[in-house]
Design goal:
- The protein has 164 residues and is an alpha/beta fold.
- It has one domain: 3-Layer(aba) Sandwich (Collagenase (Catalytic Domain)).
- The protein contains 7 helices and 4 strands; from the N terminus they run H-E-H-E-H-E-E-H-H-H-H.
- It has a 4-stranded mixed beta sheet with strand order 1-2-4-3, sandwiched between helices.
- Strand 1, helix 2 and strand 2 form a beta-alpha-beta unit.
Length: 164
């Protein structure tokens, strides 16, 4: 387990707790990512998320199954359907990131893989929080929040503006 994830486990119900795992749920080390995500998350966010790092093949299967898109993608978010009771904290859901796509996008953007993981994790977190830049009712709200939070976390660009 990432040391940052363990630190986030203190004080049930306080702040954001982040676990980073592979597709089988085995803890992965991705130094600094969990702590960074907790640091940029809106202060009002409390609960648990899991970042799942997978291959293009696995995310392709998930994208086809859940979004009816027959292609790999960079990030998918799966909000928790209903909180399990009794829980000391709300389970927000899972963020699935393709490591192969993240490596490719990092090279194309000219920044580090770790930076790309932050961009994708932040985007996924905002979807878990209910934002949807593809919805007409969003009216740019998710893009504005992503811009503010990525600036707070020291990122030059976000996923939404990259695809705009």
């Amino acid at each position: 387990m990432d040391p940052d994830s363990r630190r986030g486990a203190r004080g049930a119900g306080r702040g954001l707790r982040v676990a980073i795992v592979d597709y089988l749920g085995r803890p992965l080390r991705q130094p600094g990512l969990a702590g960074w995500l907790r640091g940029v998350a809106p202060a009002a966010v409390h609960g648990e998320i899991t970042l799942v790092l997978v291959s293009d093949r696995r995310i392709h299967a998930l994208n086809a199954q859940f979004r009816r898109h027959d292609s790999p993608t960079d990030v998918l978010s799966f909000p928790e359907a209903a909180p399990r009771a009794p829980r000391p904290a709300l389970r927000l859901g899972d963020i699935v990131i393709s490591t192969q796509t993240a490596h490719r996008q990092a090279r194309e953007a000219g920044h580090a893989y770790a930076t790309e993981l932050k961009i994708l994790a932040l985007h996924g977190l905002l979807h878990l929080l209910g934002y949807d830049h593809d919805s007409p009712s969003d009216r740019g709200r998710m893009a504005r929040i992503e811009r503010r939070l990525r600036a707070k976390g020291g990122l030059r660009e976000g996923l939404i503006e990259r695809h705009s």
